[in-house]
Amino acid sequence: MTSPLLERIAAHRRGECAGLYAVCCSNTQVLEAAMQLARERGGLLLVESTSNQVDQFGGYTGQTPAQFHASVQAMAQAQGLPAQQLALGGDHLGPNAWQHLPAAEAMGHARELIRAYVAAGFHKIHLDCSMACAGDPARLPDELVAQRAVELAAVAEAAAHDADRPAPVYVIGTEVPVPGGEAALGGGVAVTTPGAAAQTLEVHRQAFAAAGLREAWRRVIALVVQPGVDFDHSAVQHYDPAAARALSAFIEGQPGLVFEAHSTDYQTEASLHALVRDHFAILKVGPAATFALREAWFALAHVERELLPADRQSRFIETLDAAMCAQPRHWLKHYPGTPEQQRLLRAYGLSDRSRYYWGEPAVQAALRRLAANLDAAAPPLALLSQFLPEQAQGVLEGRLPARAEALARDKVATVLARYARACETNTAP
Fold it and tell me: Mean pLDDT per segment of 10 residues, for the chain of length 429 residues?
């Protein structure tokens, strides 16, 4: 069976303005919005989980790779998304979660992580061994990074064979910023130099060959680089095509390969089109989607406040913040400042650390109550227009039901649609 990801990359390399966008998220409402969008537009949806979200021990979502894969497949079936329109990938797969351990022990966990992902049916595998483990030098030599990545590739190849899964496609390298955006952009991030990209590519090519994995190397589809895009809790660094021109030209001489761009959240639609045009043909989005979901539900909470007395309200906003304050480990080191500044960042920061708390039972209960309150109250169109004007227009036009979850999903879909349009052949910003 031909890989739809390989087909898409081949189309891009033939000169078509074709790309892929990956929704890096485990939130059910975000994934449902993405699936509905893919069903309507007919494109390929790539859903990715990171090594922090999902691993053999459950990750912060509490799901193993097999459980996450099964849940996404079941969700797609429920949303009417054909199986051929869905692919799953694993992001930053390597020793990331076990950096505090000695390298041998961390890599043992990483091997099992890769095996579990591939055996479960994840098709796109990002091999990322760039992080130092206990006892390693602070900055790993490229050759050691490649050696560890190839060690994991060998595990992936064997796991696919043993589980009778399609052969994986691979992404190598890592981006300059940390996953999920910087804590602070400061002076901004620099574009990867062509020399650095060439070095990463060559040492990996040699390591694959030395390990007898030439066939697997043919399925390496992308190199992660920094095109000069990033965001922190309050600012966005937008794409500058001129600054990335030399890097873009470099990949044109590498048959079958494109770049993968991380942290593309909050880029303009014109920038997304430009990134795909310039061979950053795989675009990753995550926090921007959950940020839009948070915006939608906060807006709906304000509608609720206008409609209902205080003793009947869900207090969703307050409940979410209370959950964050009770377990600050996911945001405290990212959000500096006074208590008031931190309160604002918990609610409105672009890095959207609140996404880690949506699964908390109290938050889920408040969300259910908010949705039930609004669906029972039937908010007037004028009130929806005040807080969710785009969605109110959809209700007015008859394309969107005036139900809370549908309104929230539609707001997420407006963000993801920019990516879909940027990755479609022969579309313009």
Answer: 89 94 97 98 96 95 97 98 97 96 98 98 98 94 97 98 97 67 66 95 98 98 96 95 98 97 97 97 98 98 98 98 97 96 98 96 98 97 98 97 98 98 70
Homologous superfamily (CATH) for 4-285: Aldolase class I (3.20.20.70)
Residue 388: the pLDDT is: 98
State the pTM of this model. Answer: 0.95
For the chain, the structural domain boundaries read 4-285, 290-416
For residue 300, what pLDDT is reported? Answer: 98
As a whole number of angstroms, the distance between CA 228 and CA 232 comes to 13
Q: How far apart are CA 330 and CA 293, in angstroms?
A: 18
pLDDT at position 354: 97
What is the sign, positive or negative, of the torsion defined by CA atoms of 112, 113, 119, 125?
Answer: negative
Q: Which fold has domain 290-416?
A: GI Alpha 1, domain 2-like (1.10.400)
